[in-house]
Write a structure and sequence with these properties.
Layout (H helix, E strand, L loop, with lengths): L8 H17 L16 H6 L3 E4 L12 H9 L4 E8 L5 E3 L6 H4 L11 H4 L3 E2 L12 E2 L3 H8 L4 E5 L8 H11 L7 E6 L3 H9 L3 E6 L1 H5 L5 H4 L5 E5 L4 H8 L5 E6 L2 H9 L4 E4 L2 H4 L1 H14 L2
Parallel strand pairs: 1-2, 1-11, 2-6, 6-7, 7-8, 8-9, 9-10, 10-11
Antiparallel strand pairs: 2-3, 4-5
Length: 302
């Protein structure tokens, strides 16, 4: 039997990875916060420092909100995923940030809510806005597809974007029924002024994340005092002022730095007090984490 003071193989790997990450990235890490391919759900996610969320699956790296993008992020050991949702005319919720497919697929005036899911599926998501614009375009995915792939292993931040609030109960019913203990999988996410979504989600027992921009906080365009009460987690852009970050921190809630394109921005957000990071640049920010874990696992036979 192994003695109490003997390190397990896994513990040794975690310690090696933690030391290497502090050296390479310059951010605080905890051995318990290292994400494997299984990601993190709910309580363990929010206990990690820092935790990592893939913004649209890694919007700066791959065709956004495609299953391919999410798979690439998961392969790089991201802790959680984020998706913006549109709703088709026949009631299918799918990954789309805008009202139309124009930016992501080059259409002209193709409004998602005015078309069926079958019609939307005729188009694919371009990689034009990524470092490799020649990469293959990818199909749009339904919310159901994402949840079936990762809903039992990764927390999913859900933002209904432009969908009218009358459909929120429908979306929440889908969330409730899609996985066991759904309040550990889903976190309702939106701009800080979208209090109707926060209220509806809270009424079903979900935690909420409202994001802010430092310039708007400083100018009192979106004052924290009148909106933060709707949100369990707060978000602040990494370029926001120290005063805006300090104001947000005064409410004692975890702050997620957004939207992080690279390691420099990640380090900036953590230095300002970010508990978590929502990453567009998943490949760069998590490259060292992934490669270090792989090297440690290979070396110690994990």
């Amino acid at each position: 039997m192994r003695g109490k003071t003997e390190l397990s193989r896994r513990d040794l790997i975690r310690r090696v990875v933690g030391i290497a990450l502090i050296t390479a990235v310059g951010m605080p890490t905890m051995s318990s916060s290292l994400a494997g391919p299984s990601g993190k759900l709910g309580t363990p996610l929010l206990a990690a420092r820092p935790f990592y969320v893939a913004h649209r699956g890694g919007s700066a790296d791959w065709p956004e909100m495609s299953l391919y993008a999410y798979a690439q992020s998961v392969a790089r050991n991201v802790d959680a995923l984020e998706i913006s949702l549109a709703r088709t005319s026949d009631g299918v919720w799918f990954g789309l940030h805008d009202k139309t497919l124009d930016r992501t697929s080059g259409t002209r005036g193709f409004t998602a809510s005015a078309h069926t899911w079958a019609e939307a599926q005729r188009y694919k998501i371009s990689g034009a806005n990524t470092p490799d614009p020649t990469q293959a375009a990818q199909p749009y995915i339904s919310f159901d597809q994402l949840v079936k792939a990762y809903g039992t292993t990764h927390s999913i931040f859900v933002d209904p974007k432009w969908v009218p609030s009358k459909f929120y109960p429908e979306l929440l019913n889908i969330m409730d029924a899609s996985v066991t203990n759904s309040t550990q999988t889903f976190i309702a996410k939106a701009h800080c002024t979208s209090v109707a979504w926060a209220t509806a989600a809270h009424n079903r027992g979900y935690q909420t994340w409202g994001y802010y921009y430092g310039t708007n906080v400083d100018s009192h365009l979106t004052p924290l005092a009148t909106t933060q009460g709707y949100w369990d987690l707060l978000g602040m852009d990494y370029g926001g002022s120290i005063s805006a970050w300090t104001d947000a921190a005064s409410y004692g809630k975890p702050i997620i730095g957004h939207v992080i394109p690279n390691k420099t921005a990640a380090a900036t957000a953590v230095s300002k007090g970010a508990a978590g990071l929502i990453l567009s640049g998943v490949a760069e920010v998590l490259a060292e984490k992934k490669s270090t874990e792989e090297r440690a696992t290979n070396h110690y036979g994990g």
